[in-house]
Every structure is written in structure tokens, then in C-alpha cells.
Amino acid sequence: MTLDARAEILLKTLIERYIADGQPVGSRTLARQAGLELSPATVRNVMSDLEDMGLVRSPHTSAGRVPTERGYRVFVDTLLKVKPLNAGELYKLEHELLANHDPHHLIENASHILSEICNLAGIVTAPRREEQLAFRHIDFMSLSGQRILVILVTQDGQVHNRIIQAEREYSPSELVQAANYFNETYSGVSMNDVKRALLNEIQQASDDMQRIMQVAVRMARAALSTEEEPEELVVSGESKLMDFPELGDVRKLRKLFDAFTAKSDLLHLLDQSMRAGGVKIFIGSESGYEVLADCSVVTAPYSADGRIVGTLGVVGPTRMAYEQVIAMVDITARLLSGALSSGERANRLESTNR
User: Fold this and answer.
1) Which of 75, 39, 41 is nearest to 55 (CA)?
2) What share of residues in the chain are helix, strand, coil (percent, to 5)?
3) How confident is the model over 45-57, as pLDDT tens digits?
4) Closest Cα partner for 310 from 268, 339, 271, 343?
5) C or N: which end of the chain has fewer Cβ atoms within 10 Å?
């Protein structure tokens, strides 16, 4: 979509004014605030063009205009200048976020800080337990019939037992060979990477692939597929959304708070964001969930030791201060990534002990 310079300035001014006070913006106000020597009549003509393009609309109760979902998207993609944090804000954010070295508390702090600074709901997915563990050892033991006991040991010494149903009976020597292959190949690898590798290996399996490798991969996949743990979503500041009139309808709020409680839709959305990488912005219906139709969700993935392990972000009305929120979500994700990485943790502990 191509807008001339005058239309861009007026659209940007309208959206910024609407974000600031939540009221439809009239042509006289736009003419005065845009810094252009235009008459209200000329501004009305431009607004009419923008309305025809689906970027603004006129509420029934007012002659002024408000941005549409499409207008916000153009604003975010082409007109917005992200406002960087100054040194004082960055220091305060880092100090508050890193006040505790425990990973769980770091994640809770990130959710709370995002909510407090952005005045919106802060959300962070906690890494699944499997993301933080490395595989050490596996054993396969034959039980009655075609059942196999899988004994899985993680790097921290935890032992997990799983019983799987095999497609045929295996001899003790076959099971030992399969376990040996698996242990030699994957010992020390993170559980999450083991699962990815198993998926790739089974997809790439060919007729000439060693039979024992096929046995090991097949049985390990069956065992690890039952290893899934529910992902945890840490939410802070949901009540702040009650301060926005456009979300003030009781039925809307109830559905929105139900979504925070059930978490499944938000977790799915954050999982999409984690795979996409970088700051991701869902405006209104772009999320794909009716309950978020009047909201925007700004997210960014965070990592530990160079591996993406979760997503954080904020949920608020489409009328949010994107230029501040985007920067805050981005820098919080970077700080949390550093805090969860082993090298950064060691440096902080060393400086603390001095």
C-alpha cells in the first residue's frame, strides 16, 4: 500500500493521538497537530481517502476517526519509530530483572517488569524442564509380550521409566545393541535436541539404514513422546487491562481473563512467535483467536546459552504505545537471555562474591 507523504503524516498523527487519549480524532485537531498548513476541509478529504483504503473508520457516535486494524499494521510496519531506552531506564530494568539469580524468579521478574513498565499484561513462557536437561544414558529391557521398559537417565541424575509397546519381540542382545548405539550417539545432548534428531532420523530412514539404528530410534521416539510436560505460562498484571475503556465490557474481560487462566491459546500463539524469531506483533484478528480480536500481542523469544527456550511479551489493547512496548519487549528478551546463559550467570556470581 502506497501513501503520499501528506497521507502518511496525517495517518501517523491520528494514530499517535488516538493511542494517547483513546478518543476519535477530528479533522480540525489533525490539521492543528500534524504541522502541515492544511485546511480542515483538505484534511477531511485525505481522511476520506484513508477510510476508503480501510486504514481509518468513523465510529457511529462521532465525526472523528479512529485507526483500523489495517491502519495499525501500516503504522507499525512503515511509520513507527521505535523509542530506545535511555541509559537510566536500561540500568533500572537490568537491576530489577537480575535481582535474583534463580531461573524461575528471573522469569517471574520478567513478566512483572513488562507489566509494570508497559502498564499492560506481561506474559512469559517458562522453559519446559526438558529444555534444561541433557540426556546421559538409556537402557531397553524386555517385559512380557512385546512390551519394552525404557530407563532414561538425564545429566542431573534423574531416572525416568517408560513402558512402550513394540511392534515385535526383541532379543536381549538386540536391545543392548540399540541402547549402545543410542548412548554413543546422543549422550550429553539436550533432551529437546535429541527429540529433534530422532524426528529427522526416522524421516530420513532408508532401507539400507542399519537395522539396529532403526530399532533404537523407533523405541526412543516412542518413549520420549510420552515425556512431554505442560508448558508453564507466567502472567502478570491482567487487571491493568480493566483501565482501557475499549476492553471494559464485562463479557470481553471475562473471556480475556478466561484465556489467561486456560492459557492454551496464548501458549500456542507464543509458540508460533518462538519459531518465527525476533519481535513479533499480532494486531487484533491477526492472532487467529476471537478473544484477542480487540488486543495486540507483542512478543520476542529468549534463549539460554544460544538456544531459544521460551517467549515473552505483553498483551494489551490495539491502542498501545508500540514505540515503547516494542523496545521494552526486545530488550527484556535480550537481558533475560543473558541472565539465563551460563557465562553471564558465572560473571554475575563472581562480581557478587567480590
Assistant:
1) 75
2) 55, 20, 25
3) 999 999 999 999 9
4) 271
5) C
